[in-house]
Amino acid sequence: MLFNSIEFLLFFPAVCLCYYIIPHRVRYLFLLACSYFFYMCWNPQYALLMLTSTAITYASGLLIDSADRIEEEGKRKRRKNLYVALSFISNLSILFFFKYFDFATGTVVRLLGLAGIQVQAPAFDVILPVGISFYTFQALSYTMDVYRKEIYAEKNFFKYALFVSFFPQLVAGPIERSKNLLIQINEKHKFEFERVRSGLLLMLYGYFQKVVLAEYLAIVVDSVYNTYTERTGFQLMVATICFAFQIYCDFGSYSNIAIGAAKVMGFRLMENFNTPYFAVSVSDFWRRWHISLSTWFRDYLYIPLGGNRKGKLRKWINLMIVFLVSGLWHGASWHFVVWGGLNGVYQVLGEWLKPFREKVMKLFKVDKNVFSHKLLQMLITFGLVDISWIFFRASFRQGLSIMKTMAGLRDTYWFTWGNNLEAMGLTLATRNLLVVALVILLVTDICKYRGIDLIEWLCRQGIWLRWLVYFAGIFGILIFGVYGPGFDASQFIYFQF
Q1: Cβ neighbour number for residue 446 with a 10 Å cutoff
Q2: Distance CA 194, CA 213 (A)
Q3: Among this protein's residues, is 189 annotated catalytic?
Q4: What pLDDT score does 321 carry?
Q5: Selection from 493, 11, 483 nearest residue 207 by Cα
Q6: Which of 87, 126, 245, 437 is the most buried (most CB within 10 A)?
Q7: CB atoms < 10 A from the CB of 489, how many?
Q8: Which residues of 81-99 are buried (b: 16+ CB within 10 A; e: fewer)?
């Protein structure tokens, strides 16, 4: 069941209505049933995988909690380490089989082929379960939080199962922590008009990002990247920039709809995006992009590896490990690993060259606080991130070919902007619509960057302005959005992870 489907637009209001009508003591059971129904709309069988992961991590939490009561320190530590290891090994083994088995065996076969050894890789016809990476990481974070005594083990299995399967953020995040979401399940959520309105407005903006911005940007990106060998360097450059905004709007829309939907029911989910394209460095970008995943890797991989506590070289190695693993998390293909590794290299080089940059700025008396300097940093950061997005969207060989064509810029179309866009699938009307939509996105992000909460500001305005914006948003999406009969509602990009 996609957020941008008619089924969800019927499902969500019905769930909210029933949620506020039924007694508080059984609401978690109702939400659990709704969450599993939501997930089973894709493939009912794979709900068993989520249930298995839930059972394993639930049991590990209880076992770790019981081990904490062992008086002998050595035995207590060994038991806790054993239970954590079993939880991680079993969950990651399930993830490996369904997501990485074919990739791993294919890689081994190719390496053996290079050595002159020909073998036949075993083939398994399995479909990647939707959202398996998201709920697996969320469940594993609970195991670690109990291990670190940051939260008590949940005794009620059904409440814990709801934490793992909570439907707004189930298949594409944010990847919630038990310290935030699990404790909210016990809270009594009353209907509050201001909170519900705020959540609905956030959902409305999310729908604008998806069915207007992301879908129209996808026209350009798909048209150009699917025929990249026939395209000019300028067209590839435009499509690559469009993809940067497509993936931002596509994933950001899911997060906004998820956060807004949870807010309508009284739940607070963590922020997942914070104006990432206003970042002044690649490391700053990763503090603003997919925050729930980047902080997950920080807390459960980077810091356990030693973080920055063991010298610069070890820090750089840890950074590279984290970003290579992050790339692999995004997809079972080498081009995702290249994408992750490239972002890691950016940060290592950035830190290595920092003393040199500081000397140059001191020599030329550059004021780092002026707008022009920050704008230059933002443009450079966006350029570097956008180059890495090429390998996220295309295979490694395709990415190299695209970059080669872009670097050559062997075309004469720099002054025929309209003709190029039309060649990329956009009509005059859709081109103008896309420009207006991008301006709205830019203004919204500027306000957020400057600490202005547009939803809060709107709610303080007069009734005529509020309802004018409400209707403009709703009818704008209905009129210009890509949806409806004859349209196969496209999945969110991050569903494949």
Answers
A1: 12
A2: 27
A3: no
A4: 94
A5: 483
A6: 87
A7: 18
A8: eebbeebbeebeebbeebb
